[in-house]
Amino acid sequence: MKTILIIINIIVALALVGAGALIHRIWKKSQQKADAQSQKLKQQMTSNIAHELRTPVTSIRGYLETIIACPDMPSEKKLVFIEKAYNQTLRLSELITDMALITKMEERSEKLKKEEIDLYDVANEVFDEFEERIAEKGNIVENRLSAGTVLIANRSLVYTIVRNLVENTLKYAGDGVTMHIECYSTIEKFCYITYYDTGSGVPEDHLEKIFERFYRIEEGRARDVGGSGLGLSIVKNAVKFHGGTVRVINRLEGGLQFFFSLRREND
Fold it and tell me: What is the distance between the alpha carbons of residues 172 and 232, in angstroms, rounded to a whole number?
């Protein structure tokens, strides 16, 4: 009997060792696959960043080289080139700021502090910031959030979510549109929010891609209106930081509608 027990124990031990080795091989293979995928994403991101940085830098260099090469250029024309170079520096600065924010959310999120904020006040601050541009385009603002819609959140990131959605409307939706935001439900620990405009919307085949980094529906048009190409990617990451999700649809009545959730309190 003892011999049988010893043999059984040896078999079990060998089985456990074999299973452990198999699990290790599977884990290692999956880890290698994940590492390869991560490396591929990093290479793609690096390539995208290099491309995005190259455009404004090349433009700035071209404008300045033209000024240097033409010392007798009339002051008025020289000023035009200087202003164009300055506008490209603003774009470059925005791109660097946005990339730094995404990196912080992904790699150093523990440094982003949360506090009690009123979502109604945050939205009003965003609309106040764009008041002049909203008036120029003849847009209508509908802040249907209730005063006292309180969250425990990072104020800067929540402000950025609303700001990027509003700015997206101002850049692409057209003139004379309505910009609407409301909290349509507060189930359990989450606040469910929708933001929409009554503008032109986007082609259906682009909807799933608009949260991707540097994705542009119309390359030339997007560059004309400025921006880093990271705005909606930042929205997605900021919503995720607050434990929520975000999606977008084309409204039947026209325009884009975003649905996103934000956790109302800490875990």
Answer: 13
Amino acid making up residue 178: T
Per CATH, which fold does 2-109 belong to?
A: Helix Hairpins (1.10.287)
Cα 190 versus chain centre, distance: 20
Residues in the chain, how many?
A: 267
Superfamily of domain 113-263: Histidine kinase-like ATPase, C-terminal domain (3.30.565.10)
Q: What is the DSSP letter of 208?
A: G
Pick from 39-43, 77-81, 193-197: least confident: 39-43
The neighbouring-strand residues paired with 196 are: 180, 257
Distance separating alpha carbons of residues 65 and 59, to the nearest angstrom = 10
Q: Left (φ > 0), alpha (ψ -120 to 50) or beta: where does 227 sit?
A: left
pTM over 0.90: no
Q: Which of 252, 248, 254, 251 is nearest to 233 (CA)?
A: 248
- pLDDT score of 92: 78
For the chain, give every residue range classified as CATH 3.30.565.10: 113-263
